[in-house]
Amino acid sequence: MSQTPARRVVYPGTFDPVTLGHEDLARRAAGLFDEVVVAVAAETQKHPIFPLEERVALAEATLGHIPGVRIRPFHGLLIHLLAEEKVSTILRGLRAISDFEHEFQLASIHHRMDAGIETLFLMTSDSYTFLSASLVREISRLGGDVGAFVQPAVAEALRRRYHGVSGPPCP
Ligand code: ADP
Question: Topology of domain 8-129, per CATH?
């Protein structure tokens, strides 16, 4: 009897830190695929404020409870991770037209490196189109409340990172 292949997808990113926008995307993807592997990149040109272990731990705390979602770190090239995981589909989010050029370039280069690799895009939900990890970092750095944009564990980690304190944000 022939078996339907498992539908698995890798959702890669820096997740510095994971936001409600990432969570929304992972949750929706989990409804479409058997497994969503959230792959937290070690090597990135973005100079993350959180070390890899903490980015993974925060992603685990935020997304780990979603059925069908697994979080893991990865080093090196994404195509090597795809080969290791035996997955040929990359999932990315598109927030606005401004994301498109970079994402188009990435999808094209991955397809050129391995013609078996496809990139799928999910449009961000309306409520999160404005949301980016960089904005969240900036708001937190300047003492603002990021509670509407990230889970409490992430807000707490940001406070510790920028202000060295725990507890509610500065008024
Ligand atoms: P990268 O450095 O690879 O862009 P990010 O952590 O910034 O990593 O983003 C990972 C993925 O999550 C990207 O596909 C990005 O488009 C998507 N993403 C980021 N913010 C949101 C959001 N608010 N809603 C939906 N998807 C998002």
Answer: Rossmann fold (3.40.50)
Element (H, E) at 21: helix 20-30
Q: What is the dihedral of CA 110, 72, 47, 91, to 10 degrees?
A: 40
Q: Is any ligand 1 atom within 6 A of the Cβ of residue 132?
A: yes
Place of tokens 């409340």: 145
Q: What is the pTM of this model?
A: 0.92
How many CB atoms neighbour CB 167 within 10 A? 8
Q: Which residues contact 53 (CB under 8 A, 6 or more apart)?
A: 73
* Per-residue pLDDT reduced to its tens digit, 12-53: 999 999 999 999 999 999 999 999 999 999 988 889 999 999
Q: Is the CB of 102 under 6 A from ligand 1?
A: no
The residues near 12 (Cβ < 8 Å, ≥ 6 apart) are: 39, 41, 74, 78, 81, 90, 92
Q: What's the CA-to-centroid distance between 106 and ligand 1, angstroms?
A: 13
Domain residue ranges in the chain: 8-129
Nearest-atom number in ligand 1 for the CA of 18 is 6
What is the β-pairing status of strands 118-123 and 8-13?
Answer: unpaired
Name the closest-CA residue to atom 8, ligand 1: 13
